[in-house]
Amino acid sequence: MKATNNFDECQVFMRAGSFDMYKGSLKDCPIIIKKYYSFSVKNYDIANSCRHLAYKDIAIGSSMSAHRNVLKVLGCCLETELPIIVYEFGGTKFLKDKECLSPLPWKCRLKIARDLASAIAYLHTAFPRPIIHRDITPHTVILNRNNVAKLIDFGRCISIPRGESHVEDGLRVTSFYGAPEYFKGNRISEKADVYSFGRLLLELLIGETLYDFCKKHNKRWVEHKDLSSDIVDSIILTSTNIEIEQEQLLDFKTLVIRCLSTDEEQRPTMIEVGKQLSKMYQSLQSPH
């Protein structure tokens, strides 16, 4: 309570469907606090759902905190109606914010992509059973003042049963980021995250969220055929002067198309995606 000045509304920097995120301070050190909406407890089913999200967020988020590109869990309070989670301070900017994303040069965007791919690959491979995030969107990526990306919000994660390649899943997802298999049935694999990540890569390319882009251009969707030079953010084009970067833009687009394949078997794994992005990033010699 004291860390956020009794959850002062002025300290809120992010509102989501089931929680608020606050800037706070603990022993003169900045922190972030996630508070799930307490009004939900008036409805038992909703409260139970929120409580389940919160506990899963704590459990998986804590296990993922070893990765440098995941917002580190420092602790939690379980004495409240719904759990409260305390994190390291990782900044208050989100990838969804156009004023945050648009000015970033190509190398910085490539680093963000590489780092997030590493975090998602870790989620898929570092535990006894693969875990699917199910909510890879620009709303779940926070950036610090040096534009280092941190993945957040593990409450919607689901693990694949031992010995299985897919898991039954009835989650409702946003059409902009949900893989096609969500709308064809309810069995998904890690490749659903690959698709969502492909949409995120596309946003890094165009410099704004897909929702904003489609609204501005009166489109319902961004097709593969749209991945021509005119869709690339002008900031990238004006800052991309050396030949290798032009080649990388083509390689990046190809990777986006592979991630967005409607056939999940044709999508690369997140480990493959991470390796390709690391190779692109390492080949750049110019500073940020």
From TrEMBL:
It comes from the Eukaryota. SUPFAM superfamilies: Protein kinase-like (PK-like). GO terms for molecular function: ATP binding; protein serine/threonine kinase activity. The keyword ATP-binding applies. The keyword Nucleotide-binding applies. GO terms for cellular component: plasma membrane. Pfam families: Pkinase (PF00069). Residues 7-288 form the Protein kinase domain. This is Protein kinase domain-containing protein.
